[in-house]
Amino acid sequence: METPDDVRAALRCCTLCPRRCRVDRTRGTGFCGAGASVRLALVSLHPWEEPCLTGGAQGRGAGTVFFSHCTLRCCYCQNHEISHEGKGEDVTVARLADIFLEQQARGAATLDLVTPTHYVPQILAALRSARARGFTLPVVYNSSGYETVETIDALAGEVAIYLPDLKYIDEEPAREYSAAPDYFAYASRAIEAMVRQTGPVDFAPDGTLRRGVLVRHLVLPGHRHESMRVLDWLHGTFGDAVQISLMNQYTPMYRAAEHKDLGRRLTTFEYESVVEHALALGITRCYVQEGRTADTKFVPHFDGRGVRS
Hints:
Blueprint: H1 5-11, E1 38-46, H2 51-54, E2 62-67, H3 80-83, E3 89-91, H4 93-105, E4 111-114, H5 120-132, E5 139-143, H6 149-154, E6 161-164, H7 171-178, H8 183-198, E7 202-203, E8 209-218, H9 224-238, E9 243-247, H10 268-281, E10 286-288
Parallel strand pairs: 2-4, 4-5, 5-6, 6-8, 8-9, 9-10
Antiparallel strand pairs: 1-2, 1-3, 7-8
Helix pairs in contact: 4-5, 9-10
């Protein structure tokens, strides 16, 4: 079985992301580049996600499934060879369900679906199949944040943890860096829908996240004041209902150097000033990064491991 009939029907006029291309993906591709088949670049146990997703000291890591193609065009994307260039291998829905079960058998703490938006119909079909065969891992929807409320609503009951980015508030950098001037308008509504769906973050006694929304924000060089406004919005809207992950790991990769400010690393002052702003706001649920995390050694090798049986 290549693609179930209900999945093919959902892809014949694709409106899964805010671009709403309405392309028939059984015959061609829209902005993201994805067709009817799921394309994967890597299946792995990933130890570098936030501690609440990897099982902590006793865990073997998050069970990452890296999907190829993307609904954004971030000029600094560390995963550009799969997000922009489409590197990967096509798999059936049946094989995707097997992969979910294999991640569970490897001892993954969570099933971490990385850049999944454009494959939601196939993912839902694969999850139904896997659950019928004993799949029980918490599902993490690891997303750019550029989502429609309709797509988030379709995931109700299947996703335990949402892991969206909140990249920008301002229209100009969203347009210049990611080709999405409407980014915040959609991401803000999508994150609100995620929180409505899951409720406040719920941690187990050992610190693992059982349910809720963990919002990532990458501080960009030259944009610390925008990062502060991102924190203002998150704290003013949700208080302690969400967990925040404030990242200092920006690495100038891909086409970053073509854009003002992005051709250099983040300074210690820039990052620490954003952390101090979080403290001044009274934010208590926030991961911060210490030391040098801006390094290409943290970029996965997209060699197709775990994709084929």
